[in-house]
Amino acid sequence: MAKTKTFYQCQACGHSTPRWMGKCPDCGQWNTLVEEKEPRGGSRKLNAGPGAVPQPLSSVREQETERTSTLIGEFDRVLGGGIVTGSVVLIGGDPGIGKSTLLLQAMAKLEGPVLYVSGEESPEQIKLRADRMGLTSDSIMLMPETSLESVLLAASDMQPSALVLDSIQTMRTEELDSAPGSVGQVRDCAAKAMFYAKSSGVPAFIIGHVTKDGAIAGPRVLEHIVDTVLYFEGDRGHSYRILRTVKNRFGPTNEIGVFEMSDQGLRGIENPSEMFLSERPEGVAGSVVIASIEGTRPVLVELQALVSQTGFGVPRRTSIGMDHQRVSLLVAVLEKLGGMQLSGMDIFTNVVGGLKLVEPALDMGVILALTSSLREKPIPPDLIAFGEVGLSGEIRAVSQAETRLKEAAKIGFKRAIIPKNNAERVPAIKGIEVIGVSNISEALEAAGL
Ligand SMILES: [Zn+2]
């Protein structure tokens, strides 16, 4: 294959050099130079032939997307209802969290052949893993390869029903000199896979490792190239795995798929609320259940807080599964308006089950859990709470209150503390008593704190 002319460009300031350097000579930043290809031929003309034709908004029809089910309900859910023809899906996450396992399981159920390219593991290793999981499939064709050109050549011969690149960090295109895993390689290989998928209609799955030290170009650089981005949340220490849709051209984002890791691979959990609450301690201070909306479904999750006197020096503040800044803000609200002394306290907050929550609706749960821990008073186990907390301690309405309450009633909760504005609008739901509150002191009182 003919070498394309390449150069290195600083991603911070745009300076370009013919050779790679660790430090940009212009802006002085480290590791910002990325290999780029010289544009082929002159610049494109503006009136270069037929392009898109403007059309009235009212005449735009929804495109029918062709989908294939993976037969794994939770995986179909995060994809927006199955695999879309010619789409490119990036699956990111920590090494060892279950990305290859999930794809092996899903691909084994597809009508073959599926071209499974592995630059990470040998065919023998993959076979061993498949045997352990009890997968018997004639549809998966394994290819140990790292050259993207060879992969695409094999793909155009085979015309597979799907293509898997495991992982993008091991792939390299011969057009660039930089090493596999560098930003230039990762980006260019993904773009080539994208072009292949679009022109052939073959859906492609790209596995990308997220590394904490950032030594290898992570999947983040690919997010804007691909159609769908899924990230695994949670850690290897837990048996639960959460696959979240971060971007999806063909469906809703923020959707989550919940799985349990077992010897047989990943098992979809259809009722995540029950799972997240399965190990909940009862009668313990600092624990509260909140109702969150994840994508299109409600999920009940346990929030925990631990407030204790600082042993020495600066108080420690740690939040797992929720935004640290948001928690600091709520602590400040409790100090100022709840009259609590929290400045000399270590404060830890945790979302049980490895879920990451971003919704403001969890605010009220944080307030209740913190107070419960500080005052060492447990919150009744049959109570759930949700609502946004404002800076002056007011409780603000949140969306989909009815959906949250229905889920709580289904799981067997008897009482719900929710924003007054929501309580006034929501229809009565059998089995659950709704308590509307308009500020944090009403909320604390309703929870018996
Ligand atoms: Zn620079």
The proportion of residues in beta strands is: 25-35%
Cα end-to-end separation:
72 Å
Structural class: alpha/beta
User: On the 0-100 scale, what is the average pLDDT?
Assistant: 90
The helix content, as a percent range, equals: 10-25%
Biggest sheet strand order reads 8-7-9-10-6-11-12-13-14
Bound molecules: zinc ion
Describe the protein in words:
The protein has 449 residues and is α/β, with parallel strands linked by helices. The chain is built from 11 helices and 23 strands. It starts with 5 loop residues before the first strand and ends with a helix. The structure holds zinc ion. Residues 10, 12-13, 15, 24, 26-27, 29, 32 line the site of zinc ion. Zinc ion binds next to loops.
Give the key terms.
globular, single chain, alpha/beta, 9-stranded mixed sheet, binds zinc ion, 449 residues, 7-stranded mixed sheet
